[in-house]
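Risk mitigation, structural track. In case the binding assays with 2-acetamido-2-deoxy-beta-D-glucopyranose fail to produce interpretable data, a predicted complex structure has been prepared as a fallback.
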Amino acid sequence: MDRYVAIVFSILLGVAAASSRRFPDGFKFGAATAAYQIEGGWNASDKGESIWDRHVHAHPGVVEDRSNGDVACDSYHHWREDVRMVKEMGLDFYRFSISWPRVLPTGFANHISEDGSKYYSNLIDELLANGIEPVVTLYHWDLPQSLQDLGGWANPLIADWFADYARVIFDLYGDRVKTWITINEPIIVCDLGYNGIFAPGINSDNFGAYMCSRNILLAHARAYRLYEKEYKPKYHGEVSISNHIFWFEPATDQDMELTELSKDISIGRYSHPIFSAKGGWPPALERYIAEKSKKEGYSRSRLPSFTQEEIELIRGSYDFYGLNHYTTRTIRPLAAGEAAGVFLVQGISELGVTCGGRPEWPSTASEWFLVNPRGLRDTMLYLKQQYGDLRILITENGYSDSGAELDDEPRARYYKDYLEQVLLAMEEDDVKVIGYTAWTLMDNFEWTDGYQSRFGLHAVDFSDPLRPRTPRRSAHYYAAVARTHDLDATYKFPEEKQEL
Ligand SMILES: *[C@@H]1O[C@H](CO)[C@@H](O)[C@H](O)[C@H]1NC(C)=O
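Fallback model:
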């Protein structure tokens, strides 16, 4: 009898332990891509030129392997296969982005491309026919070159141009798309776009980046308010922005204050205006740049201020928090004569600091990227402490390697370890996470890394004109988690059963 009780007990305990490693029923799993990284068809039909087309054609040397996104995964032709992969993994949603110049070849709303608008309409219909929710990003870095020629994100009128573009897209697809991201990672658009590295390749991180920050927040808010007023009443969708967050830890106890200011400039600059109760720039950051600008002899702060009306427009322009997260870095002051790494900038060059790591954080195929699963939980707890009990949709998280292996055990392990932290955040910190998006569905053009670093759940053979896609071990693991909601789900790879 004792033995029987013990067995029943251990079964019950086993069930209890297992249930604490499960995602709740309503939790959604998806995978993401971006137009320029996968579509190719850069000059198909009447598509306009984007700033990435121009950047890589005019300056091939900016890309490590001198490659470009002219063809990429050729999803312009193979989009049905992309849908099939998402379907085969049993995911709830697919996050993709729309190429602004493919739909609006002139950049303006005077002419809507028939082929361009049909491409995304077909993709959305195919997803829905397969029971997959489309999650659509309006801007993932491929600005029409025609608008860049007029100043791009540094021109305040871009808030009008973006709202006009958003209206076209909401009119075309609002009946079928219920989750929208306006801008993907404004910090990369502004801080990497204006330090000469990413398109448009302008070197002005002390000015251009801040003009961009201001205008991109206004553009986001204009699109949000437009949807709220004219589309939400009939379509009931949700709109937000996706912020890229490096989690920062002080390198030593002496670096605490610099680390807080680094969070303000990197996280707060794009979050405080939208998600805080007060709105506007993070106060400590606004003071810091104003005082520094004055000392430098400028007649006004290099960080342009908002009017009260603009603060109100931006404040509260969200339905959830869109979080892209990959890595944790330490913060320390730059040594004399030392320069910060370009990909590590994340706005912090202003502060005379740079990023380091800890020995226990493994490196990846990307220079900026060290693995620290706990950082995801810390990031979400910080967001909750700063901005209240927001619903968080993780819109990107994933791992880069050289792409050589279909048996990508470290990537599968990364997903498991980071997803475990999502569960812990939900259970221990009571953070409201509504879904998780793997970056990325398949290998693609990784910006200035070209095809050298790969983030794909599926491998893509870029030497084959048909660009065949093959699931990696990580795809099998992630699909098993998505289907069962069980972090410890078992899966088959490729023939034999393998567990992590
Ligand atoms: C499109 O670009 C390719 C190079 O990627 C070029 O070979 C082709 O001629 C271009 N097509 C048109 C219609 O301009």
